[in-house]
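Give me structure tokens for this 373-residue protein.
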Amino acid sequence: MMYYKEYGNSGKMVSAIGFGAMRFNETDVKENRFEKLAELPLYALDKGINYWDTAPFYCDDKSEIIIGHAVKQINREDIFLSSKTNFGTVGENPTRDDFRKRLDKSLTRMQTDYIDYYHMWCILNLDAYEKLYDTMYGWFEEAQAEGLIRNIVFSSHMEGDGIEKVIASQKFKGMLIGYNPLNYRFRQHGIESAHQSGMGVVAMNPVGGGVIPGSPETFAYLTEGTDLNVAQAALRFVASHKEVTVALNGIGTTEQVDEAVKAVEGLVERPAHEIVAEHSKDGIALNDLCTGCGYCMGCPVDIDIPKFMDAYNIKILTGKEEECLNRFKFHWGIPSEQAGECIVCGKCERECTQHLPIMERLGEIAEMKHPLR
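Here you go.
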């Protein structure tokens, strides 16, 4: 049975698990099987998941369309819709008309008259926030006054002081931020500040972009005293924070819906500081593990950087270069030597939401050699 929380101090009750609409079946997406794909969010709603998150460009730029095919089949007031915009969706020097065209496009695609939570999207640092705020916030307010947006919120990959400065502006009703058993020590104060200010907090990447379920032995401590698998336990870990409103889970199958719902059955909420103290000697809290968000895609020499960073995660977790190389050979089926083709242009690091030293890691991978057998 689904567990519900109040979104900030709004009085609106949202599901503790959110439907992340970025993991739809790739074959069905390519074939434009929208009605079939829409069955998944409808199934999620039937199981009590009423917070649906999408964005432009998700799933070959079809996620909002798929969500729209589901929305037209339900009572609109039964769900809370979330979408996003930034310079990447409207252009580097946008006009009001550019902003409205993007918003209107999202509304049309989702077959709705309004968006419950519209995000100022992917804020990497304070400079980016200030530029985005100065350019767009007034347009957000105008759209809100017209009833097209119900809540102005933001999505950020900033840490500590940066997040708290945005929260302190009191310009937003909620935030979307990465929070999971990998980075919780680095984000604790941010979610506490948001909660104390009456904001809703939606946690993306609750399973660390697949890193956590991909290393079940490392994160086995999360499952102690439960009958949950590691992925479910990670979801429960995040959702159990009193300060977190929604654990946003990328969902691609009905089985994943069922597993997510089970993860929050009988949930007990506790303050973040208690949870952090309890786990202070458990597992790891590494903010330098890649969470696989994919913003680094688009390498000019076609290095599939998320896969290379995933393999480097294995080195961090195991301390063994051989395990890293095995990840390339047996999991990804790509040559690790391609890392040596990096031209050190820095594009990937500028886009990295975690500010990881990607070029340095590619250099390390290029130098790795299998031990002689």
